[in-house]
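F.,

This is the one I mentioned.
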């Protein structure tokens, strides 16, 4: 089986740091915006945790995982599958 492409965990970390250090501070005086940012942070933490669970399942079932930093690093087979889907739509 080909490696399962997953985003590098650093992507989650970058987004979380930006939201926690910069965005959250800017919305402190606007309770509605502040709450929205808090929900976004929680959602990202859940997504990161779910990805870690997926990685653990892959490890247990001997499915290789390949971390990607961008879509540019995805191999041509996946890109051609996406192109095929676009043509059907």
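My design for it:
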């Amino acid at each position: 089986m080909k490696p399962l492409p997953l985003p590098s965990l650093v992507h989650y970390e970058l987004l979380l740091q930006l939201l926690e250090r910069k965005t959250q501070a800017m919305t402190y005086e606007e309770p509605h915006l502040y709450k929205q940012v808090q929900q976004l942070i929680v959602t990202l933490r859940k997504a990161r945790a779910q990805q870690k669970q997926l990685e653990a399942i892959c490890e247990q079932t001997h499915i290789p995982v390949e971390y990607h930093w961008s879509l540019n690093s995805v191999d041509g087979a996946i890109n051609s599958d996406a192109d095929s889907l676009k043509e059907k739509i």
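The first strand starts at residue 4 and ends at 7.

Talk soon.
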